[in-house]
Amino acid sequence: MRLNSKVVGIIVLAVMFGGIYLTAGLGWWQTAGGGRGAGNHNGAGESPPEVTVLRGSIISSDRRGITIAAADGQSLYIELGNPRYNRSIGFAPQLGEQVTAQAFIPEGKTAYSAVTVTLDRTGQVYVFRDTLGQPLWSGNHAE
Amino acid sequence: MKFPKFQLFPKRGIWARKIVQVLFFALIAFISVNHTLVRNGGGFDFLSSASLHALCPFGGVETMFQLLTTGGLIKKVRDSSIILLGLVLILSLLLGPVFCGWVCPLGTIQEWFGKLGRKWLGNKMYNKFVPRKLDQVLRYLRYGVFAWVLYATFTSAQLVFQSYDPYFALFNFWTGEATITAMLILESALLLSLLIERPWCKYACPFGALLGLSNLFRLFTIRRDAGACNLKGDACSMLCPMNIDISKKSVIRDHQCITCMECTSEARCPVKDAVYLGLGGME
Asked: What string of pLDDT tens digits covers the 283 residues of chain B?
């Protein structure tokens, strides 16, 4: 039995692309061992970060985060996370909405990263990172 | 008036392989660039969660000890690495290290640099710089690198090799995450590729070392029908990128073969059906 290069090419493409498609579909690109990983991802550390409570109304938003106007007039940008993850948890706030965020500034960065954001109007809490500051969409977070 | 026949690919060669190489190089490059863009608030949602680590089957090797002893993975390695490693090993047992010859983007870019080198130096000089005896010894270096990577990763539970990995540097040189050492190794590999075919793969790649062992067990091997071969020359050996002496063997089970198929009758070998990828056979 002989194989020519076209057959080899089809086998390689089918197996490798199949593997990539399958693992992407199952979400195994994000999850380090379904949460088994020791995790030090996206700038977060292994000890709990110093979390600050921020309160204000949303004045703008982009794919990655929101900017709130605090009571003292200060504008604060809060990075939420992966846009796909934000959508998957149903986080779709309106401009002007009052929110309370628990957030921290990761090492080497200047903007806040959200651990949780609460919509004051409904009391709905959206969780973006775990207590160690690990992004929940990365899978490296503590269970 | 007779028009010359149009040929898209005028020279003989394994074009299926070249197409597969370009596809994988483009995919990995796209994913790496997109990963950076997404982290900075841009990019495409498509494949947005993927990083280079998620697509690296060698991560599966690096984390194996941790997985077996603690049930966890080392930092940055994803579940997908384990699955991709499994698939690469299955492919290797079937066809040999096709990952090296057909998929690995680092191998591909070395080949592209090699093409330039071959163009400048010609077939007689290119890939003939390392004396044969030294070359034979140096080829075992990659097993040393492989052993060191395993030991250093197992003892530290960190992706130690990332700091030296030219593959990581190739797709992260714009992020600042690639170390200077990795960048220097990448540059050296690419520059050496102008003189020697696939220098990193031959002498230093730890994943290539592991996959190369599959040549000893693979189901389909490169085979040479000595009866069909009516040439006294060694056309098949001459252009083997891994410098394997194909013309003196009937079955290629050399640990350096990457199943590029450039030696076969489909490509370089001028005799029909003399060199082919066939089932079984021992050296």
From this structure: 554 444 444 456 788 999 999 999 999 998 888 877 776 666 676 665 677 888 889 988 988 888 888 777 787 788 888 899 999 999 999 999 999 999 999 999 999 999 999 889 987 888 888 998 999 899 999 999 999 999 998 888 888 898 999 999 999 888 888 899 999 999 999 999 999 999 999 999 999 999 999 999 999 999 988 887 766 667 777 778 898 888 888 899 999 999 999 888 888 787 888 888 998 766 6
Longest dimension (CA), chain A: 78
Domain CATH number, residue A87: 2.40.50.580
B73/A9 CB distance under 8 A: no
In chain B, which residues have their Cβ closer than 8 Å to the Cβ of A18?
87
User: A60 - beta bridge partners?
Assistant: A67
- The residue segments making up the domain with residue A90 are 52-141
Please measure the distance between the N-terminal and C-terminal CA atoms of chain A and give it in whole angstroms.
51
Residues 6+ apart with CB under 8 A from B184: none
Answer whether A96's CB lies under 8 Å from A57's CB: yes
The total of structural domains in chain A comes to: 1
> Domain for residue A80, yes or no?
yes
Contact B73, B63 (CB under 8 A): yes
**Residue numbers in B near A33 (CB within 8 A):** 67, 71-73, 79
Partner-chain contact A38 B157, CB within 8 Å:
yes
Q: What is the value of pTM for the model shown? A: 0.74
